[in-house]
Amino acid sequence: MLKVKKIKNRGKRVLSYVWGDGVDRSARPHKPLTRIWKKKTGRMNSGKISVRRRGGGSRRRYRLVDFRKREGEFKVERIEKDPNRSNFIALVTDKKGIKFYMPAIVGMKTGDIFQIGDKVSVKKGNRTCLSRIMTGSFVSNIELFPGSKGQLARAAGTYAVVMGQENGLSQLKMPSGEIRQVSEKCFATIGQSSNPENNMIRIGKAGRMRLMGLRPKVRGKAMNPVDHPHGGGEGNESIGMKHPKNVWGKIALGVKTRNKKKKSSRYIIRRRNHKRK
């Protein structure tokens, strides 16, 4: 459920956040499953900035979320908000009492029991191979190769649709609209990834962005010519070039960056930028 802050000042006039969905906001993270996160603030190992406009932010610990294949029956201890990712995570225990974190799905709540394996029942919350999942089902946290960890449709509110099975491959319609093939032996969680209202959140004020570790962005037009290709001019001038460029002078929009020789490209049936006739 999306909540809007009470109007006390201009910053809180439009500020909103997600509340409810069975998330235990008072619970502290399970400490053995956390690590100290030493921030690099967008810098390489040499100390040079590789990603601009990052720095600061509130202190947080990294949660060790398990995306790999486990088999058996598990119980959800609680649902938590992870500050390092957009979707919620579930603290889960197995029959031996071993705890681990895994991505939560829509509708998952404390006390739920679910199963992971090749021969488990095909129902919401369970995790099994794609060959057993019905056509038209929503799946998330999908393996890209059999035995690897979940890599596809992991962000908040995302899901892929099972289009069909053919020659040992499953056809999936990805959140971007791309249709690709994945081995039917790959595991996937039945259901939509949690926190679908994440894209409706309004940050509301600059201070909240700074707590997230995001620094202010300055327009290229507001800079001097020595600092940016768009800089210079008197008043609100146009950029004075055919295509917008980044700070290093390369074309910024409309340039394809995907490697055409990538091996996984042969499994793509229809790209996300496909235009219908």
Would you give an account of this structure?
The protein is mainly β. The protein contains 1 helix and 17 strands. The chain has 2 domains: about 1-200, Roll (SH3 type barrels); about 220-275, Ribosomal protein L2, domain 3. A 7-stranded antiparallel sheet has the order 9-16-10-13-14-15-17, with no helix packed on it. Strands 7-6-5-8 form a 4-stranded antiparallel sheet, with no helix packed on it. A hairpin with a 6-residue loop joins strand 11 (about 140-145) and strand 12 (about 150). The longest helix is centred in the C-terminal third of the chain and has 6 residues, at about 205-210. The chain is globular and about 70 Å long. The chain starts with a strand and ends in a 7-residue tail after the last strand. The mean pLDDT is about 90.
Short description:
The chain is mainly beta and 277 residues long. The chain contains one helix and 17 strands.
CATH topology of the largest domain: SH3 type barrels
Q: How many DSSP-defined strands?
A: 17
Q: Order of helices and strands, N to C?
A: EEEEEEEEEEEEEEEEHE
* Morphology call: globular
Question: Taking Cα atoms only, what radius of gyration do you get, to the nearest Å?
Answer: 22 Å
The helix count comes to 1
Main β-sheet: number of strands, strand sense, barrel status?
7 strands, antiparallel
Class computed from helices, strands and strand pairing: mainly beta
The CATH architecture assignment of the largest domain turns out to be: Roll
Low-confidence stretches: none
Mean pLDDT across all residues, rounded? Answer: 90
> What's the end-to-end separation, in Å?
39 Å
Helix content: under 10%
* Overall domain count: 2
Beta-strand content bin: 25-35%
Assigned CATH class of the largest domain:
Mainly Beta
What topology, given as strand order, has the largest sheet? 9-16-10-13-14-15-17
